[in-house]
Each structure stands twice: as structure tokens, then as C-alpha cells.
């Protein structure tokens, strides 16, 4: 997207992914870098205290808050596919969304968008029933909320058909297949660790709408938001490098959600 003729991109990261006494990632540092925070809602990670702390930090930093909804899978960090019946999945997503939004509002903010996490995100690329269940939860709660997802996914197609705003997302630190989907985390090359490569990929997605697949094939990636995972080793340094590279390339970093 552009504003005043200049390219603009949103930079998002997954935050609040600790649980109880366990911390994962540096939420406070990342809130000083990103423009949008995908906050775990308690099903794959996160708890009420963590959600409250991250929402307060996001409001203070002017960072948009997104509900990062997931399967009910704390033990697997939401990275295992679960064949949840559609009505149950809709209820689970609605529960998470409403909980985070309530906490965000007590901090002076609100949930500004919805993004599935992990296995649910990947399932919603092709799994029509589960993608529709997520869309139904968002539609039932607040039709003004955008849905963040992979370009060409069933999730974004069904969200658009339901009258919801959609935002296409790219991943600077994840490997892509030639089909434009993410390389499964169980396979080599799923995560890109080289800081320079991560920054270059983010800039190319923001400026050219292209990302290179594992075999070097250019893949169309017309995105409005770029993700850097908060649980990746060195995530803060990676995110800072991505933001610096984007700004050096003349791309402004700003949230897509108000």
C-alpha cells in the first residue's frame, strides 16, 4: 500500500507467547520495533496476565493489537493440526477474540484485526470448513475487523466473500514453496535465520511483491504486512534489521489497523 505516494508496509510479530512463569521472546523490545502485535489469546500460549501486560505495552507504544487465535493446544504450541468440528472451532475463536478484546479495552486499546496461529493458519490456506469457521467467528463478533492471512488462501477468499476486510501477509523469516505456501516446520529450510537474507526478503516483498521460494523461483507475494516471528532465536535483532532495511529502502512502517 502507499500513503502520500510513498510505499508503506505493516511489520508484525507474534507476542505474549509465554505462559505463567515461562517467557518466550522479548515482548517489550519487539513492541519498540513492530507496528502490529499478534497477541496470543491463551489457547496455544499466553495467559490473562501476559495478555494484559502486552496489551498495555502495545497501547503505550502505539502498536496495533491483533488477536492471534489458535487451536486449543498448549502442549503443542498450536502447531499440530486438530480436526475440530466447525461450530466448535468458531466458538473457540470467538472465545479467544472476545477475551483479548476485553483486556485490550481495559488498557485503552482494542483488538484491531484477527490472525490465526500456527497449524490453524496453515490449515486455513486450503481447509475450507475450518477457514469458514474462523471467518464466522470474526463476522459474528465484529464485521469491521480485518483478517490477516496468506495471499490466495481460503481464509482470505471466504473472509472477502463474507464482507470482511482482508490483509495479505508475507513472512520474512520463513521458507516458501513454489506454490506460495510456507514450508512445513518439520522440513529443512522452514525458517530463515540469516539476518541479511531476512531483511532483503522483507524489502523485496514490500517493494516488488515477490519472495523467492526454496528453489529460487520468484513467487508473487502482494502483501500489506510482513511478519517476523517473536519466538525465533535473535528475533529482536532480526526485527530491527528488517525495519532498518525497509526504511533505508524508502518504505514507511505503519500499522494497517487503527
Structural commentary:
There is one protein chain. The chain has eight helices and eleven strands. It has helices spanning 27-31, 48-61, 86-106, 118-126, 128-141, 154-161, 195-208, 235-248, and strands at residues 2-3, 6-15, 36-40, 64-69, 111-116, 147-149, 166-171, 210-212, 218-220, 225-227, 252-253. The radius of gyration is 17 Å and the shape is globular. The strands form two sheets. Strands 1, 2, 3, 4, 5, 6, 7, 10 and 11 form a nine-stranded mixed sheet that branches. A two-stranded antiparallel ribbon has the order 8-9. Strand 3, helix 2 (48-61) and strand 4 form a beta-alpha-beta unit. The chain is of the alpha/beta class and 258 residues long. The longest helix is centred in the middle third of the chain and has 21 residues, at 86-106.
Nutshell version of this structure?
The protein is of the alpha/beta class and 258 residues long. It has helices at 27-31, 48-61, 86-106, 118-126, 128-141, 154-161, 195-208, 235-248, and strands spanning 2-3, 6-15, 36-40, 64-69, 111-116, 147-149, 166-171, 210-212, 218-220, 225-227, 252-253. 38% of the residues lie in helices and 19% in strands.
Amino acid at each position: 500500500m502507499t500513503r502520500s505516494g510513498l510505499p508503506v508496509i505493516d511489520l508484525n510479530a507474534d507476542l505474549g507467547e509465554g505462559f505463567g512463569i515461562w517467557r518466550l521472546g522479548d515482548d517489550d523490545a519487539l513492541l519498540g520495533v513492530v507496528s502490529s502485535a499478534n497477541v496470543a489469546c491463551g489457547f496455544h500460549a499466553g495467559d490473562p496476565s501476559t495478555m494484559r501486560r502486552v496489551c498495555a505495552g502495545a497501547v503505550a507504544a502505539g502498536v496495533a493489537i491483533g488477536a492471534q487465535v489458535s487451536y486449543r493446544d498448549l502442549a503443542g504450541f498450536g502447531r499440530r493440526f486438530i480436526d475440530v468440528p466447525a461450530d466448535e472451532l468458531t466458538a473457540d475463536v470467538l472465545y479467544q477474540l472476545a477475551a483479548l478484546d476485553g483486556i485490550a479495552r481495559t488498557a485503552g486499546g482494542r483488538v484491531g484485526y484477527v490472525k490465526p496461529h500456527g497449524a490453524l493458519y496453515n490449515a486455513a490456506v486450503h481447509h475450507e470448513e475450518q477457514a469458514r469457521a474462523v471467518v464466522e467467528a470474526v463476522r459474528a463478533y465484529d464485521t469491521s475487523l480485518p483478517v490477516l492471512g496468506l495471499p490466495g488462501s481460503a481464509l482470505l477468499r471466504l473472509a472477502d466473500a463474507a464482507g470482511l476486510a482482508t490483509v495479505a501477509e508475507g513472512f520474512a523469516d520463513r521458507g516458501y514453496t513454489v506454490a506460495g505456501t510456507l514450508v512445513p516446520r518439520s522440513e529443512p529450510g522452514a525458517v530463515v535465520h540469516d539476518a541479511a537474507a531476512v531483511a532483503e526478503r522483507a524489502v523485496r516483498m514490500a517493494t516488488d511483491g515477490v519472495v523467492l521460494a526454496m528453489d529460487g523461483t520468484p513467487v508473487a507475494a502482494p502483501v500489506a504486512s510482513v511478519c517476523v516471528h517473536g519466538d525465533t532465536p535473535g528475533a529482536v535483532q532480526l526485527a530491527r534489521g528488517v525495519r532498518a532495511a525497509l526504511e533505508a529502502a524508502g518504505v514507511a512502517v505503519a500499522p494497517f489497523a487503527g
